[in-house]
Amino acid sequence: PPPGLRIHEYLYFQVLSPGDIRYIFTATPAKDFGGVFNTRYEQIHLVPADPPEACGELNNGVFIQDQIALVERGGCSFLSKTRVIQEHGGRAVIIADNAYDNDSFYIEMIQDSTRRTADIPALFLLGRDGYMIRRSLEQHGLPWAVISIPVNITSIPTYEMMQPPWTFW
């Protein structure tokens, strides 16, 4: 799309398990790099990258293949993270802000200066949301969450009730 067309577009995903974070989360697509979702994944793993910033080789890369990675902001560019996940066979990457108290400010993810590209979708997630997902997985001793992505919220009458409670703080 022409520049500026995707700026305020939102994309939604729903956590199916673990049950204590079974909410619909709001993410924003990268502004000028990455692919788009041509498929709706009814059930796909959301795998926290190890190490979380995903700036180099991953310890759990085998679990990211054909799944979606949850990555933390920082250490390298948004594009570098997206390429690392793509190289490990990930279908998409969700990059959460590293400010864990960020529950309202969406950052515009733009290309770095290297003129590289990435083909998989890259989404930005609020720091609070990323933290709560990771914390729940740690508490349950789970290596990943199960999500549906993207979710069409216009078809969900109770969307308001399905948002994370902390988004209203």
Task: Write a brief caption for the model.
It is built from three helices and seven strands.
CATH architecture identity: 3-Layer(bba) Sandwich
Query: Unreliable runs, pLDDT <50, ≥5 residues?
Result: 1-7
Work out the helix count.
3
Strand content: 15-25%
Q: In sequence order, what are the helices and strands, one letter per element?
A: EEEHEHEEHE
CATH level-3 fold name: Glucose Oxidase, domain 1
| Average pLDDT figure | 91
Keywords: Glycoprotein, Hydrolase, Protease, Secreted, Signal
InterPro entries: PA_dom_sf, PA_domain, PRADC1-like_PA
GO molecular function: peptidase activity
Function: Plays a role in the modulation of physical activity and adiposity.
Task: Characterise the protein shown here.
- The protein is of the alpha/beta class.
- It has a single domain, classed as 3-Layer(bba) Sandwich (Glucose Oxidase, domain 1).
- 17% of the residues lie in helices and 24% in strands.
- It has three helices and seven strands.
- A seven-stranded mixed barrel has the order 1-2-6-5-4-3-7.
- 38% of the residues are buried.
